[in-house]
Every structure is written in structure tokens, then in C-alpha cells.
Amino acid sequence: MTDQKNLIFAIAISIAILLGFQFFVQKPQQEAVRQAQQQAEQAAKPSGDAAPPGAPGAQPAGAPGAAVGAGQLLQRDAALARAPRVPIDSRRLKGSVSLRGGRIDDLTMKDYRETVRPDSPLIDLLSPSDTARPYFVQFGWIPGTDSREVALPKDDTVWRAEGGVLGTDQPLTLVWDNGQGLVFRRTLTLDANFLMTVTDRVENTGTTPVSLLPYALTKRWPTPHTEGFFILHEGLIGVTDGTLREISYSGIKDQKEVKQATTGGWVGFTDKYWLVTLIPDQAEAVESRFTWEKRGADDAYQADYLGAARTIQPGATAETTHRVFAGAKEVHLLDDYRDRLGIQRFDRAIDFGWFYFLTKPIFYVIDYFYRWLGNFGLAILLLTVLIKLAFFPLANKSYRSMSKLKLLQPKMMELREKYGEDRQRLNQEMMALYRKEGANPASGCLPILVQIPVFFALYKVLFVTIEMRHAPFYGWIRDLSAPDPTTIFNLFGLIPWTPPHILMIGAWPLIMGVTMFLQQKLNPQPPDPIQAKVFMVLPIVFTYMLAAFPAGLVIYWAWNNLLSILQQWVIMRRAGAA
Q: Who's near 283: CB < 8 A, 6+ residues apart?
């Protein structure tokens, strides 16, 4: 029958979308083996490991620098001890500023750990250049084209600190005198969250003018592990000239360099949950740049910008201000910086995707309910109720039509027996019966199709927002953004055996499958035996597929099914079909 085939086709498309989503997005991606690549790393001497934008004589792309063997790589603590440092200690960050080079290359977030275990390591965001995975932020000046030769701070320049610690409302000033009439002062301040303000000043105490251009850069290598694939951008990111720019690590390797003149904006690196980005004065014109270079056996990536030239007369001072965000991509925090500091489209550092207009409001609703209920799982349940109320009239119409179909099943079987060999006539008679009774055989598709946009929007929220990371529900669900950790194949932990990933079918996916089966039993059964068998298999297929999805999404689907069963049962009972 044409309409039943359409229904099967619609469900098949839904399954294909879910399967594709699982294969390309949810399937765990393992980090590439890098043992061979780690045979050449950055030398212990930090000089030359960052190329200021436009600097004369800067190390060209592809230059390996002074490489050392993997056995010479330093542990983090040993690397930190190689240079004099000033501690960073605020409410949410700890680490240190290296006085050699005046760079920020040691930063750890106090609020976030690697796993849900309370004793797991904190997330290290930035690391020195002589560790296995360098990641740092650096500032400085380069000479103007018409400037005389002057000594400028370099990677190995040792600054003098004025202040014992950098913390919230505890600024730190670094000073370096080049001995040729220029005194450089760098003042760093840190807010209560993840934003640092860096003010670079140059005082000309000499007798001749000098022209300098300020720069800021952030650099990392080797290529970091990414897991989002199509659903999530991880790599180089920025807003230049008012436009969001997203370049993957493989993309910048192909292009090698991407330049963009911009007024304001920001550039940096984004991971799934973390962001390190450079923010110039939003009223200043700068030349932004993304670059790639080969560094020994590794790929190194850099985001930077170069400001306009400042001519500093004798006895005068030049000043420039940079901001650095280094921390977790919390939705309300990025919104606040965007609005309060006027940072262009800063909230877009969180990849809410093409359906931003739907995904972000869903997050706001869940977050509002969380602040009220104190549990993101309960917030998702309440959101589901709101969605059911919003689509209540549509669902009612669908369920009433399905009730009529169930009452018509005896007549449909009679027509099938009468015209079973004449498919065309059977379809004509069936359509005539539907029109006479006001029934729509495709009505069962509507509740499923309506759920799909919400399903994917909620998946996006669970996948990309730091607020959902490690958010517990109740019982065994300690992370709503991760799959249900239990499995029926070891009797939910009673048998001391960890099954392979393919057999991880937890309690909540099973609950979802049961609710889907019960809802299906309320629906009119297809007269075609083959179609009936297809429908019977669907709960099993969906149970297996959704087992690898975030637990919060499975809980949403199961709860939605329960509400649908209640609504459908009441309507069908009133119609005499239950």
C-alpha cells in the first residue's frame, strides 16, 4: 500500500540519519600514534620556537629548529623548573608566567578534571615549549620598516618581575631594559574567570625616535586529538572583519597561511570544551593570521595578529592592550564577555551549528531549569514536557487519526482478502475507506518527524556544552554527556567482565526500547505481514543505535515515549480503540 510504504520510507530515512550520525560522530575516534613523530621535538632552549608575525629574520615555515630526541623531552614539572617563574593563582586558574620570554605557558583549570572521578587530574591547558605537547601565548614588538636597529625582547629574554603572584585583582608587571634607551613594561591582570589583560608599554629614554609594531601569538604542536568530526569544529578559529572563520588542522596544512585584515575580532584555537584566543583592542585595525609549519616530525600551528606601527619619540611612551581568553567555553561567560567588552561574536566560539537559532535556546531553557531544579537530567525531563505541550494539538490530531485506523483494521483485512491479488484496486478501495472515515495512514510519522529536529538540537547541546560535561543524573548515570556505562551483557555489573564496546547496551537504552515497543503496540498494525515484522524490529534497532549516544539523549527519548504512551492511550480509550 502506497501510504504504508511512505511510512516505512520515512522511518527508514530516520534510521539512516541516526546511523550516519552514530558512525560519523559518536563512534570513538582514537588519537593517531605519534611515537615516530616524537623523535624530533623542540629543544630545551626556548629561543626560536615562536615566529612573531612579520618579524624580519623570523624562522621560516618548515624550519625544524633545534630538535632533540624523544628521550630528551622533559616532564612538565622539570620543564617548569628550567626558567624563573611567577605563580598564577586565582579562583579558577593556577600556573605560572615564564620570566624567560615573558610568555604564558603554564595554565591549569581548577574547576575541571579529566574524568568524573573526583581525584582525577585537573585539565592542563597551556604547557612549556620543551614538553611533549607545547601550547603557549606570547606577546612582543617588532621593528618598523623605517626604524633603526634596536634590541627587542625575544624568546630567551629574561624579564624582571614586579610582584610576587598574578591573581584576581593582583596585577603582575614585567620589566626589561634593552640598554639602548628603551624600557619595556608588561602588566598582566586577571579577572575572576578566564580572561587576562596584557598591557605592553615601551618608554623611549633615548635621543632618537623608534618605530615598533605590537604582536600577540598563540602556538601549539603537535596536532591535538579531535573528536567532533562533522558535528563539531576543533582547530583554528576567529572572528575577523565581523565573520566567523573556522579552519581545521588539515585545512591550514593545505593552505599553510591565511591572512585577514580586521578591526577588532579575535583569533585562536578551539577544542571541544576549551578555548585559547587572542583579543586585540576592538577598535584597532590589525593583521590577523593563521599559519602552519613543519617542526621536526611534527606539525605546528600558530594564530597571531600584528598591530599598527607606533612611532615613539624621545621621552614618549607607546602602549597597546591585548586580551587573552584561556579556559572553558561556558555559554553565559562568553555571552557576558561579548556584551560587556564588545568582543565581536565571541559566543560563536561554542559550535552550536547551523541550527543555532534552535540549539542555543534549548540550552538556555535546560540551564534555566537546572538552576531551579539543581539537576540537568531533571531539566531535560521538564524540557520534554514543554515540548510535548507545544506539539500537543499536532499529536492529538495524529493519535485520533491512528485511533480511527485501529478501529478500521477489521474492514482493512476484509478488503485485503477481497482484492489481495489486485494491488491497484486494493489501494483504491483502501484510500476510499480512509477518506470516508477521515483517517490518515501516515499520521504515525508526525510524532517521529517532529522529534527529529529537537533530538539533534538536544544532541548538540549535550555534545558541545561544557555545562553538560560530567553532569550527573541519578543512580549509575554520572555523566549525561556520555553513554550509559552499564550493559546487559554483564548483568549491569553483577558479572566481573567488561564487554567490548559493541556490546555496551545499558539500562536506559533498554528502557527506551521497551517504551518504544509499548507505544508501537498502541498503534494500528500494518495489514502487510512484512511491514508488521519491520515495525516489530524497530525498537531493537533503535535500542542498539542509541546505546552509544549520550545518556541524556536516551533519557529524553524514553521519557518522551512514556508521555506519548499516556497521551495516546487516553485518546484511544476515549475513541474506543484501546
A: 263, 264
| pLDDT > 60? residue 183 | yes
**Same structural domain, 242 and 378:** no
Which residue, 317, 351, 385, sits at the end of a domain? Answer: 351
Give the DSSP letter string of 230-269: GG---EEEEEETTEEEEEEHHHHHHHSEEEEEEES-EEEE
Residues 161 and 308 in one domain: yes
C-alpha cell at 279: 583579543
Query: What is the count of structural domains for the chain?
Result: 2
Task: Please state, in angstroms and rounded to a whole number, the distance separating the CA atoms of residues 46 and 63.
Answer: 15
Cα→Cα distances 228→78, 118, 233, Å:
33, 26, 7
Cell of 276: 585559547
If pLDDT is split at 50, 70 and 90, which confidence band does 528 have? Answer: low
Banded model confidence at residue 12, pLDDT cuts 50, 70, 90? low
Domain-embedded: residue 30:
no
Q: What is the pLDDT of residues 58-106, one digit of tens each?
A: 433 332 233 333 334 568 888 898 999 999 999 999 999 999 999 999 9
Q: Do residues 338 and 457 share a domain?
A: no
Residue 64 in any domain: the answer is yes
33 domain-assigned: no
* Grid cell of 193 as nine digits: 574567570
CA 324 to mean position of chain CA atoms: 19
Query: Mind listing the pLDDT tens digit for each residue in 13-44?
Result: 555 555 554 444 444 333 333 333 333 333 33
Per the model's pLDDT, the better-predicted residue between 443 and 163 turns out to be 163
CA dist 55 → 48, 51, 223, 377, 570 (Å): 12, 7, 25, 52, 74
Cα separation, 426 vs 413, whole angstroms: 11
Q: Residue 229's pLDDT is what? A: 62
Average pLDDT over residues 371-393: 91
On whether both 400 and 443 belong to a single domain, the answer is yes
Supply the range of the domain harboring residue 408. Answer: 2-25+360-574
Do residues 427 and 512 both lie within one domain? yes
Q: Do the domain assignments include residue 32?
A: no
Q: Do 395 and 542 fall within a single domain?
A: yes
Total Cβ atoms within 10 A of residue 259: 13
When pLDDT is averaged across residues 434-454 and rounded to a whole number, the result is 69
42 and 62 in a common domain: yes
When mean pLDDT is compared over 62-76, 328-342, 491-505, the highest value belongs to 328-342
3-state SS record for 160-216: EEECCCEEECECEEEEEECCCCEEEEEEEEECCCCEEEEEEEEEECCCCCEEEEEEE
Which residue, among 65, 52, 148, 68, has the nearest Cα to 103 in the 3D structure? 52
Q: Minimal CA–CA distance to 93: which of 324, 247, 308, 250?
A: 324
Report how far residue 395's alpha carbon sits from residue 393's, in angstroms, rounded to the nearest whole number: 5
Residue 489 backbone phi and psi in degrees, to 5: -80, -10
Q: Which residue in 215, 216, 220, 214 sits closest to 292, CA to CA?
A: 220
Show which of 351, 371, 387 is a domain's final residue. 351
Tell me, what CATH number does 99's domain have? 2.70.98.90
For the ranges 242-251, 427-436, 439-448, 541-550, the maximum mean pLDDT occurs at 242-251
Same domain, 253 and 383: no
